[in-house]
Specification:
The complex is a heterodimer of chains A (121) and B (165).
Chain A: H1 11-36, H2 40-66, H3 70-99, H4 112-120
Chain B: H1 2-19, H2 25-46, H3 56-85, E1 94-99, H4 105-116, E2 121-127, E3 132-137, H5 145-152, H6 154-164
Antiparallel strand pairs in B: 1-3, 2-3
Classes of the chains: A mainly alpha (121), B mainly alpha (165).
């Protein structure tokens, strides 16, 4: 290897690198959302969506570069687990935050969940 | 009963084989033992409606759902990314209530997961008996329960109904 960074010899390596770069970009946007958005629920929105797709994109790039082998299959399996578990974790965090009394930010327009809980008790 | 154990065994064994991919006979032997044990112990907890697995149209609808869902997921990401990058931070958040007609556990789980991963919506809680979902919406376009149901739930519900109900 003459180039110290990476030598692209095949078209599938180029496509894989593009997917990995896109994935890293989405991950960075997710972190930016975590910093900029006002309250827990909005931050969960940014992190679940951007980080899930970003990480899946990185794994898809890995799969495209490595092909059907030990690494590729592990990448695909990780994608499936990530897509199944991230929303569940976000759901649990949001519900737990609401139950323990974390308020929505001032810009919020409505909170039907709180209304219904108040009506019950 | 025995059918649900066999189905869980097949799932567990496939995951195991993919994990240890260049699978030689030692790996496969351990996989059969572990998947068999897990399926024997927890078989009837996960797979309840065995007859659904015999229906081929459900598999086609599930494939359609996966493709449709990935497309929605990409749209969601671009939407949230644009909101985050915008200097004025155009959000209008709130928790709305929507109703669903799905009844089965798996269907509800998939519905909640899909809602969480699509444009600006995050499932907060679920009321199984009455069929209500509480959803945090980053850009509330309607507080009315029927209008919100139309906007958030309907497109997934149509597909999921054919797969899981």
């Amino acid at each position: 290897m003459n180039n110290p960074l990476f030598v692209i010899t095949n078209i599938h390596e180029l496509v894989g690198i593009i997917f990995i770069i896109l994935g890293v970009g989405f991950d960075i946007l997710g972190c930016l959302g975590l910093l900029r958005l006002p309250d827990v629920y909005n931050r969960l929105q940014a992190t679940t969506k951007c980080v899930t797709l970003g990480t899946c994109s990185i794994l898809l790039g890995t799969f495209i570069i490595k092909g059907f082998g030990a690494t590729g299959f592990k990448a695909i399996l990780t994608m499936v687990f990530l897509l199944l578990t991230t929303p569940v974790a976000a759901h649990a965090l949001a519900r737990g935050a609401h139950k323990s009394g974390v308020k929505l930010c001032d810009k919020s327009v409505c909170d039907k969940y709180k209304d219904d809980q108040d009506a019950l008790s | 009963m025995i059918m649900s154990k066999i189905i869980l065994f097949i799932f567990g064994f496939l995951v195991w084989v993919f994990l240890v991919w260049p699978a030689d006979w030692q790996h496969i032997l351990v996989g059969v033992a572990v998947a068999g044990f897990v399926a024997f112990v927890t078989g009837d907890m996960f797979v309840r409606r065995v007859h659904h697995f015999k229906n081929p149209s459900r598999y086609f609808w599930f494939l359609y759902y996966v493709v449709f869902f990935l497309w929605e997921c990409v749209k969601a990401n671009i939407d949230v990314a644009l909101r985050v990058m915008n200097p004025r931070l155009p959000i209008n958040p709130g928790i709305v209530k929507v109703k669903t007609t799905l009844k089965s556990d798996t269907g509800l789980t998939f519905l909640a997961n899909s809602i969480t991963l699509t444009p600006g919506t995050l499932c907060v809680d679920i009321d199984e008996e009455k069929g209500y979902l509480y959803i945090h919406w980053i850009d509330v376009r309607s507080q009315d329960i029927n209008k919100a149901t139309e906007l958030i739930v309907k497109r997934f519900e149509k597909v999921l109904k054919r797969v899981f109900e």
